[in-house]
Write a structure and sequence with these properties.
This protein is of the alpha+beta class. It is 62% helix and 15% strand. The strands form 4 sheets. Strands 2-5-9-10 form a 4-stranded antiparallel beta sheet, with no helix packed on it. The protein has a two-stranded parallel sheet with strand order 1-6. Strands 3-4 form a two-stranded antiparallel ribbon. Strand 3 and strand 4 form a beta hairpin. The longest helix is centred in the last third of the chain and has 69 residues.
């Protein structure tokens, strides 16, 4: 049975994007198949070149003959051995066309391997950013549970003091339960994202490991809203909030530290025209189509030259040992051999080769158009998301500020519980939208890189 992977992941490893890509390239059966097809194409070049090498023939045998006459009989038995060396001297370019055809097919096979690598890199990037996105959303839900715990404990204390009604306490319990359910879903989405990444790397039964942020996706868990209690040590934080007479307060690096300071958003280096130019120069599938077209040109030349003769040389040696004498002899010859040609068949094959050549050219032109529109679409999509990210970052800070104001109003008895929950939900949604935008930007960028043929 085939193994799931060649390269495995060590327990508790911390992988970078490049590590995951390398694992996928080493483990991918599709890439390995493409490489084997390229090796097979290379061997066909050697087969085509074999016409330039001599062929050696060797034979031996014992022959007997018995003759009977009226008054006597006789036999003529002998042993012989022979060897011959045949060499094609010149065939008017037929072998060259065949060799060139196989060389172009090998080039196309190598580009097919590169195309499989490009696809594998894209699959890993998509899955990798999916894990980072799920991880960030899980952190958001963890913070949301913490916030709802704080609200429930505070509302319970207010209810026991007669400041708030029973309905506020019940609503606080409901929102706390909902937030825990959402956290469970977020945990499940994170595990599912890890499975997709393992699948993209072709690694089964992977141990526990973690991945590093990338330059364009580097959220940290402390960038989301968290809760702290006022204590003698202002840096002390509690994972579980316990209301013991001290008023919990918000702590958020979103408020104190702009997310984009660590995110360091950098526009893409290439213009649309430059991206299209790079795609035309390095896109593996497009280059494979071009190499296939060149191979078909050589195939057409080969078929046309089947009419031509070939000049061949032959050298032979024969040894014969009979009852009466031993004979050794050398022979040599040169010949101009004309092939047996079925004119109807050859003409039809030439017409077929021309039609295939035209179809291959149409395929190249169609691929160039598809590459153009694919790059253009990916580039425009990336630019659109690129413009949204700073606006969504501002929205995160604005909804946080509104939430803190609503919380303050509720704490002093001015605002109601519904307003507080609406403000909290708006902030939570803004964080989710921000993470989604960063994820979509990275996917759009990976799609553009794939459209350009980047590995």
């Amino acid at each position: 049975m085939p193994a799931f992977s060649i390269e495995e992941i060590t327990k508790d490893a911390v992988l970078e994007l490049s590590d995951c890509i390398n694992l996928a390239i080493k483990n991918s059966p599709k890439i390995n198949m493409a490489r084997n097809y390229a090796l097979a194409a290379k061997s066909r070049i050697g087969q085509a070149k074999s016409d330039y090498f001599p062929t050696l023939g060797v034979g031996t045998g014992y022959y007997g003959q018995v003759d009977s006459y009226k008054n006597s009989s006789g036999n003529n038995n002998y042993y012989s051995a022979n060897a011959s060396l045949n060499q094609m001297i010149f065939n008017f370019g037929k072998t060259n066309a065949r060799i060139n055809m196989q060389k172009f097919y090998e080039i196309a096979a190598n580009y097919d391997t590169d195309d499989a690598i490009v696809q594998a890199v894209y699959d890993v990037k998509s899955a990798y950013y999916g894990v980072l996105s799920a991880q960030a959303k899980r952190d958001i839900q963890k913070a949301n549970v913490q916030v709802n715990e704080r609200q429930y404990l505070r509302t319970k204390a207010y209810f026991e003091e007669g400041i708030r009604s029973k309905i506020d306490l019940v609503n606080a319990e409901v929102y706390l339960s909902d937030s825990k359910i959402e956290l469970v879903k977020a945990e499940n989405n994170y595990k599912t994202a890890l499975i997709k990444l393992n699948n993209a790397m072709y690694v089964a039964y992977a141990p526990d490991y973690s991945i590093k942020n990338t330059e364009t996706f580097n959220f940290t868990s402390d960038q989301f809203l968290s809760i702290s209690l006022l204590t003698d040590n202002p840096d002390e934080k509690y994972d579980t909030v316990k209301y013991d007479g001290q008023e919990p307060i918000f702590t958020s690096s979103v408020e104190k530290n702009d997310i984009l300071k660590s995110y360091e958003f950098k526009p893409y280096n290439y213009t649309l025209d430059e991206a299209i130019e790079r795609a035309n120069k390095q896109r593996p599938d497009l280059l494979s189509f071009a190499a296939t077209y060149a191979a078909m040109e050589e195939s057409l030349k080969y078929i046309k030259r089947e009419y031509y003769p070939s000049i061949n040389g032959k050298v032979g040696y024969t040894h014969r040992n009979t009852n009466y004498f031993v004979n050794n002899g050398m022979s040599f010859s040169a010949s101009l051999d004309f092939p047996t040609v079925n004119i109807m068949n050859t003409v039809s094959r030439i017409e077929e080769a021309r039609a295939q050549l035209d179809a291959a050219l149409d395929n190249v032109n169609l691929s160039k158009q598809n590459v153009y529109f694919e790059v253009q679409n990916a580039y425009v999509n990336m630019q659109q998301i690129e413009k949204q990210i700073p606006l969504l970052e501002v929205k995160v800070r604005q909804t946080l500020e509104n939430y803190e104001l609503a919380d303050g109003r509720y704490a002093v008895g001015v605002g109601d519980f519904i307003q507080l929950q609406d403000a909290k939900q708006n902030y939570n949604n803004a964080q989710q939208s921000y993470v989604d935008a960063v994820f979509q930007y990275n996917i759009a960028r990976a799609t553009l890189e794939k459209a350009m043929g980047e590995k």
